[in-house]
Design a protein that fits this description.
Helix content: 10-25%
Radius of gyration: 13 Å
Shape: globular
Largest sheet: 5 strands, mixed
Strand order of the largest sheet: 1-2-7-4-5
CATH superfamily: Protein of unknown function DUF192
CATH topology: Jelly Rolls
């Protein structure tokens, strides 16, 4: 899932159920994330315009905020997912959206 609408970017996952292990929300442009109003933690992957990982944030708890100066976008995923993915800062990702038919 992806959002570029300013209001949707501000909302992010607030008021939505937690993502499943195979889902993510891509928000762009975005260099900061807050979890005010959320009921569950999330993992974050901050990326540059060329999809290079700038920062990884594990288990950002509700009512917190994080900002990454050199990030252009962020992927929000279910807390605990980063541990399983074994990603590292500097790695370049490829984004593929799938649709249910």
């Amino acid at each position: 899932m992806q959002t570029t609408n300013p209001l949707e970017r501000m909302r992010g996952l607030i008021g939505r159920p937690p993502l499943s292990h195979d889902e993510g929300l891509l928000i762009k442009p975005c260099s900061s994330v807050h979890t005010f109003g959320m009921c569950y933690p999330i993992d974050l992957i901050f990326l540059s315009k060329d999809w290079q990982i700038r920062k990884l944030v594990s288990t950002l708890q509700p009512y917190r905020m994080v900002w990454v100066a050199n990030a252009y976008m962020v992927v929000e995923i279910m807390a605990g997912t980063l541990d399983k993915l074994k990603l590292t800062q500097g790695l370049t990702l490829k984004w593929e959206e799938t649709t249910c038919v």
